[in-house]
Amino acid sequence: MRKTLVAASALLALAAGPGATSALAQQKSVKIGFVSTFSGPTAVIGNDMRNSFDLALDHIGRKMGGLPVEVIYEDDQQKPEVGLQKTQKLIESDKVDFVVGYIWSNVLLASLKPVLDSKIFLISSNAGPSQIAGELCNENFFSTSWQNDQTPQAIGHYMNQKGVKTVYLLGPNYAAGKDMLAGVASTFKGKVIGQDLTKWPDQLDFSAELTKVKAAKPDALFVFYPGAAGVQFLNQYVQSGLKGQVPLYTAFTIDSLSLPRQGENALGIPGAQHWVNDLPNAANKKYVADFKAKHKAYPSFYGAQSYDAVGLINSAVVAAKGDLTKKDVMRAEMRKANYQSVRGPYKYGNNHFPIQNFYLQDVVKDADGKLTLKTVATIIKDSQDEHAKKCKMKW
Amino acid sequence: MADALLRVAELTKRFGGVIASEGVALDVADGELHAIIGPNGAGKTTLIGQLTGEIAPDSGRIYFAGQDITALPTHQRSAIGMARSFQITSLFLDMTVLDNVALAVQAHAGHSFRFWTPARSERALRAPAQAALARVGAADRGNVVVADLSHGEHRQIEIAMALATRPRLLLLDEPMAGMGPEESARLVNLLRELKKEYTILLIEHDMEAVFALADRISVLVYGRVIATGTPAAIRVNPEVIQAYLGEQQAVTGHG
Amino acid sequence: MMPALSLRNIVVALLLLMLLLVPVYALVVGNNFVLSLFTRIVILAIAATSLNLIMGYGGMVSFGHAAYLGIGGYMVGILAYEGILSGFVQWPLALLVSALIAFVIGLLSLRTRGVYFIMITLAFGQMIYYVGVSLNRYGADDGLTIYRRSNFAGLLNLSNKTVFYYFCLLLLLATIYLTWRLVNSRFGMAIRGARSNDRRMHAIGFPTFRYRLTCFVIAGTICGLAGVLLANHTDFISPAVMHWTRSGDLIVMVVLGGMGSLFGPLIGTVAFLALEEVLSGITEYWQIIFGPMLLAIVLFARGGIDGLLAGIRRG
Amino acid sequence: MLLFVEQFLNGLQFGLLLFLLAAGLTLVFGIMDLVNLAHGSLYMVGAYFAATFTAWTGHFVGGVLLALVATLLVGMAVEVIAMRRLYGRDHLDHVLATFGLILFFNELVRLIWGPAGMNLTLPPWLNTAVEILPGVYYSMYRLSIIVVALAVATGLYLIVMRTRIGMLIRAGASNREMISALGINIKLLYTFVFGVGAALAGLAGLMQAAILTAQIGMGENILILAFVVIIIGGIGSIRGAFIAAIFVGLIDTVGRAFLPDILKLALSPAAAATAAPALSSMLIYLVMAIILVVRPAGLFPAPGSR
Predict the structure, then answer these.
(1) What are chain B's partners, defined as 3 or more CB pairs within 8 angstroms?
(2) How close does chain D come to A148, measured CA to CA in Å?
(3) What is the mean pLDDT of residues D103-109?
(4) Structurally, how many domains does chain A consist of?
(5) Which of A324, C185, D144, D280 has an alpha carbon within 20 to 30 A of A196's alpha carbon?
(6) Mind listing the pLDDT tens digit for each residue in B166-201?
(7) Helix, strand, or coil (residue B183)
(8) Closest chain A C-alpha to C285 CA, distance in angstroms
(9) Do A199 and A221 share a domain, yes or no?
(10) Number of domains, chain C
(11) Domain check: are A127 and A164 in the same one?
(12) Do the Cβ atoms of A325 and A71 come closer than 8 Å?
């Protein structure tokens, strides 16, 4: 009887987690919760984000405004409700001061309400769904990445520059996929002669769609297939014999994480990005060099955005001189984007999404013969997303 | 002859090329104990399947108390008074004996869309079930889980369940299968008692029992009824003797 | 229900006591997450209990039961999105729709048996999942954030975490009580008979289809209620809760706790989520332990935890 | 027309791949009465083995053969260690136990090969397109999948219909007691059948790996489809699995290829664009539900199966 009681209270204590004991220890450190995907195939992305976040903390000596930094990483398993649950844990149990991370739009959207309800700063270092850029914009939400439409719009511009007249659009059937295709269509001046949305994430065989592309004979093919799907798509694009017939344009399909597995297939395929590993600013050079030295690989844009999140938070904590209750001071500082971003200087729009340049990237071989991404041109300068107009926030 | 309670006319059933029933005709008079015998593979199981509605015949008709029941589903045949015991014991193994029999009572005590009152405390279900158990001599076994019973007891419960549905006709499918001589003898006595109250269609291998109990016997061979008559008539029927030569030396043979 | 002082009854009593005291504990240590976690456990336990009704007592292994979580949740989410916040409208409508869909699925699925039944319920579950994915107006696979919880005209404030928790707990206990009444009633006996030996049920005169269908609808409706609660708890609903792996989780919870046992699903839900929590704390590769554990439970503890506690083997 | 030919081949190729997976599943199901959700894990293991062995030996065919043998051995080991204890148990027990195995295999693969997945690189002679009709080019590799799978299907048919082992297999599917009456070592037969099923799944997995790459969890979604196939075909029936697999493969491909255009005839373009992907995702499940409603035991119920 006694034993079971002990067991029951042990279960309770266990559920309570470490936060139960450290509830009052708050002011002695800056507590950051980091939510990303650390299990399943997309753990590759989460790990890259974590590695970059860690590296950035090392670069500032793991202290912000004199306070030590404590980070709690949580795995969202790429599931919205798990992400939500982990976010709630970070807020209610660990009592963090910042919540950072989020690869997936749907996980971010699910987790948004509890963070903002508790007036904690939420820094998205990847996901940028249109709702949060528009009507759901919030004074405590900041993005260090981009809004979903921006990158494909840049590609639309680029195709105009290349004189493309007809395009076929291909992407997965989920919100970001639809945003991407709509983004391209909004700036592309030629004709969209075909479009397919494929089942996500189940469908990995694109034979039927590629056959349709072949039959439609467009000037160009645009695709958005993030993560492993990008590897699989390129494989099939090449096997179908389309490479050489219909030029491919991409967004978030070729990055430093997928490139080693895409290999030669990716050579010469352009994409748009707000950050490329060879951007020639000092912060970026230090970041890429140290990352390569430590992890023997190039960082990805996911990593770069996470690296920047540390810079952004640090600027806020320093401005508030370590007094984390001064939310207004911290918010005002973050709005200035007053830190050394690895993408170079940028500004924040009224919706707290960056107004930034977009570059054309190409796949080339580096000095060691390793495949890497290279900036070819600036497609568009100081791009701001359309949804900012729908955001009522003014400052 | 009294009115036929069960009448089967020209019943035919084929499985692929195999004929299981061919123009079977059968009359079971009210109050009689009618036995069906036949060598293995004669189509007895198929016939009982059609009588209970588990197998749909290709052609032919089945009448019960004057009503055409050929297309009636199994549970409705039970509702109008046809009860059946299974050759291979088919009970609710994870329930107690009394629960088993009470379910059979419940099936005939109106619909079962009653969601609240505990069924195990309903006298209207338990008392008749207990009575049926007593009838087959298993009154003291009510609280035993069926899976823990012996084979012979299973056969008893089979019959108790059939009785609990308050039938007019009992279809007993080889009730003595797998029983020892002592158990068989007890069952023969029980059937002799039941015979006074119920019309019974008995399908049985045990010839001694059949000839001791039956008012009339039908002989099924290769899906056809080759003869129907009193035990005395069947015993001397040359066709029957012919059909059984391969299997048993003589129909009258003991054992 | 004899309150004998067996190990199993003591554990159940302690579990209930613990559930009653969770908000007190959360208050004392100032940690609301415990409350969130246990609210989730209680809600999932309602869903598991409803699955146990058809699976444990009725022998209908539904591999698409999570669909009703989504249906209940989406009814709340969609109505809230369209500006209808009254719980007096949302809840009955959600239950009604869950019941209707369960009726249609049951009507078609219950014609099949065994693995065919498992697979056809899976197919229907997946169809509903893809309906959720294609609801563009309601966020498609991004899901739908619910900005305001169901409003009960001041009678019940669901936004108060403690109130909401006790409300869910009350509904769980009501569900378990309902299950207890149900499975011991005439209806329950008919359902259990159909699970044990459907052929015999027909032979003794039961038209079992209608009872099994009714049971299927009751379970779907209760799971729809769990969906309503879940949506109000997370302020969010997405197709992900309807994915087939979620239905698999529910099955695991029921079997882990003990099929055909009243408190089994509750025990199973607590154990499932606690195991997940403990094991994932030990190693990132926690499923390499959890997987074989499931296998071991199947091989050596067929009655689940409840069966182990009761010290008897179930069929 | 040319479009149609090519889409037909796409569907055929996908269907045949499903058949390889479904064949093992339906054999194990029909003979041992075992629901094996972990069949998809063997598919995944085959893919990873092939990627590893081809990279290791530097030889595509050699690597593939090694991978097949390795998957066969893994399958037999799984049978001896775990599956053997599940025979005669409830189907629910099977679902649960093999669900546990899926989790185990996924984590094991992640532990061994990492989370990123692996490529299976094709040799140049497979990585091209061939002219199958005047003016119609088709992927050489997809064409070889069709050829290999057809050859395996024929071989399976011959084994099941013409040989002593096949007779045992057919006997097992319809009458479990008969095998033991024949004095055959059932344990050995079961281990063998399970191993062959595993190798077939591995073959499907490694062929798919060259197109889709080897990924953790790659077996789960396609496993559901393979189950759909054996359910539609009737459990235990190789012939049913074959026909149903081609059927499902074609429906899936044709749905993706032509549904948007078909829907445009009835709906506005915007409505068609949203409805088509949703409907084509549901299509297979819809078809399965309809078939089961009409024929509750599938199209070709195997004799003796319930």
Answers:
(1) C
(2) 19
(3) 93
(4) 2
(5) D144
(6) 999 999 999 988 888 888 899 999 999 999 999 999
(7) helix
(8) 9
(9) yes
(10) 1
(11) no
(12) no
Residue C223: name the closest of C140, C121, C102, C138 by CA. Answer: C102
Tokens encoding D102? 């899926």
Classify residue A362: in a domain, yes or no. Answer: no
Residues A68 and A111 in one domain: yes
Percent of chain B with pLDDT over 70: 95
Residue C137, pLDDT score: 87
Residues 201-220 of A with CB under 8 A from D: 202, 204-205, 207-209, 211-212, 214-215
Which residues of chain C does B114 touch, with a Cβ-Cβ cutoff of 8 Å? 185-187
Instruction: Flag whether C295 is in a domain.
Output: yes
At C88, which CATH number?
Answer: 1.10.3470
Are C105 and C64 in contact by the 8 Å Cβ rule? The answer is: yes
CATH number, domain of A305, equals 3.40.50.2300
Is the four-CA dihedral A225, A230, A236, A240 of positive or negative sign?
positive
D and C touch with 3+ CB pairs <8 Å, answer: yes
Residue D118: beta bridge partners? Answer: D214
Assigned domain for C159 exists: yes
- Interchain CB contacts (distance < 8 Å): A and C: 106
Q: Which domain holds residue C127?
A: 22-307
Instruction: Note the CATH architecture for domain D14-294.
Output: Orthogonal Bundle (1.10)
Task: Please give the Cα distance from B69 to B74 (Å, whole number).
Answer: 10
Residue-wise pLDDT tens digits, C66-114: 999 999 999 999 999 999 999 999 999 999 999 999 999 999 999 898 8
Nearest to C33 among A89, A175, A178 (CB): A89
Distance between the two ends of chain B, CA-based, in angstroms? 32
A128 and A86, same domain (yes or no): yes
Contact A40 D216 (CB under 8 A): yes
Domains and CATH numbers, chain B: 1-88+168-255 (3.40.50.300), 89-164 (no CATH)
Per-residue pLDDT averaged across A260-270, rounded?
90
* Chain A residues within 8 A of D210 when measuring between CB atoms: 235
What ipTM score was computed for the predicted complex, to two decimals? 0.86
Residue of D nearest to A198 (CA): D277
Rounded to 5°, the CA angle D29-D35-D39 comes to 95
Size of interface B-C (CB pairs under 8 A): 102
Residue A381 covered by a domain: no
Measured between CA atoms, the residue of chain A closest to residue D261 is: A194
Task: Say whether the A–B interface has 3 or more Cβ pairs within 8 Å.
Answer: no
The pair of structure tokens assigned to A131 is 């709702």
Q: List, for residues B81-119, the tens digit of each pLDDT value.
A: 999 998 887 899 999 999 999 999 999 988 899 999 999
pLDDT of A178 over the 90 cut: no
Mutate to test the interface with A, among D119, D140, D225, D264 (most CBs of A within 10 A): D119
| Nearest residue of B to residue C178, measured between CA atoms | B116
CA atoms within 13 A on the CB side of C115: 28
Contacts of A258 (CB under 8 A, 6+ apart): A227, A228, A230, A231, A266
Last residue of a domain, one of A273, A293, A322: A273
Give the H or E element holding residue A248. Answer: strand A248-251
Q: Where are the domains positioned within chain D?
A: 14-294
Do A95 and A198 share a domain, yes or no? no
Q: Same structural domain for residues A199 and A253?
A: yes
C136 located within any domain:
yes
Alpha carbon B17 to chain centroid, angstroms: 28
| Cα of D138 to nearest chain A Cα, Å | 7
User: Are A14 and A129 in a shared domain?
Assistant: yes
Domain coverage including residue A39: 8-146+279-355
Q: What residue of D is the nearest CA neighbor of A173?
A: D277
A178 touching chain D per CB within 8 A: no
